[in-house]
Amino acid sequence: MDVPFISNWVLIRLSGFLAYFLFTFSISAGLLSRLAVFQKKRPLMNELHQTSGWAGVLTVIFHMILLWRDRFVTYTLGEIFIPFFSDHAPLASGIGTICFYLFLIVFVTSDFLMKRLGKNLWRKIHLLVIPAWIFMVLHGFLIGTDSNLPWAAFLYGGGVFLVVTIMSLRYLESYFNSLADKNDAKKTP
């Protein structure tokens, strides 16, 4: 699949970075929606979370199709869909495949099976998004041809910093809320 002014290789790299951006944005919006400061904007944050997540899944599918159709580094469908089966960078490719499956499980269960699974099981499955995102970072860093360039390191590092910071804020807010709840429980006879 070549576009006259953009090579397949450029589209593969672009779709990989776009998927990274979309999933990082999705996770960030999902985490922010749970913070007290965003409670009034929670519906908007949830919409951003879901929309960017599905856009990320579709971008990864586009990325996989481009890899399958590439003529320079050839991937068979088996190499794309079976983890660690690829002749080219089997570890990094396999991590990418697992990442795709984890994200797909999270989005399918969130949009189609959440009510059937129940809230507790759904939340546990939804947490798979964190290892999926970590695998995505590793996949891009290990196999990406731009990973050694400063701008790519900045993008990866910036995304990791953002997600870790928001997760830390969410943890701290939860921790201090639980302390406040314990203090309130002690005051009530």
Automatic annotation (TrEMBL):
Highest taxon in the source lineage: Bacteria
Main location: membrane
TM spans (from-to): 12-32, 53-69, 89-113, 125-145, 151-172
Pfam families named in the record: Ferric_reduct (PF01794)
Membrane-protein topology: Multi-pass membrane protein
The UniProt record lists the keyword Transmembrane helix: yes
Keywords tagged on the record: Membrane, Transmembrane, Transmembrane helix
UniProt subcellular location: Membrane
Ferric oxidoreductase domain residues: 16-137
InterPro entries for this protein: Fe3_Rdtase_TM_dom (IPR013130)
Keyword check for DNA-binding: no
Protein's recorded name: Ferric reductase
